[in-house]
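Hi there,

I know you've been waiting on this one. I reran it after we fixed the sequence typo, so this is the corrected version. Both the input and the resulting structure follow.
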Amino acid sequence: MATTISMLSSVLILVAASWTPAVADDLQKFDVTAKSLPPHYDGDNFAEVYRRVTAKVPGKSEFETTADYERRREAAGGDFEGVKAFTVVTTPSYDADSGVFTVSPFLLAIPVGSGGNEVTAMQHHHDFAQRKPYLLQNRFGATVEVDSVAFHDFMLMAVSADGKRVGDVAQTAPLVAVPLSRAASTKPLLRLLAIMRVSAALMPRNSRIGPARTHVAPTWDSPREEEQVYETIWGELLQFWVYNFETGEVLGKFDRTGKRLVE
């Protein structure tokens, strides 16, 4: 079940010598026909893909009309970054009776634009920083200590080929069978890949490309300051893969709904 979070209305929100890698570098497409991955494979470089996608359509300038900005975005619309694979946050759980791991993505429902529409997002990485507390003073000279925190999230926004919302992401949780004798040692090695066709053109109209930031200022009654930064890659979600990070063994391939693919 997806969790809903608040966000700005304008969301921007690696080889064995004898093996040909599924991804040689960030300039190549991910090979969805690959039977295995290199040991310690960690997916495509989110920061580099994000940099290239956002560079194709720089953010709207204050001296640029919305109409001109939209025309510039449409001009870059057919320029796909290609098929990429990103690790996504998951917490595998094991059923000893059936000998099966459930490996579901952590999903977020993020409101986009002013129409109340939500887009399903997967969390690639989450950073949290506890900042040094400081004192807030009121007009009478009284002080209160403020707790200050910062969040930085790297998100993958799942949409259809035409950029529309998809509501069936991982409706069926990806399942992989692992013998009970190996379950405990396998669990910390399980990883989940989201394979996506990436393009800046898949972002909704009137949304801002680039980091989205929110800031909650502290008050006397609620002495807590929060800063949130979201960096988001939009893409057509194609498949999920469950694999062993240590060996690169692919334990299962699934469509975007979580249904296992027959190979």
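Quick highlight: Residues 3-17+33-131+151-214+229-255 form one domain.

Best,
R. S.
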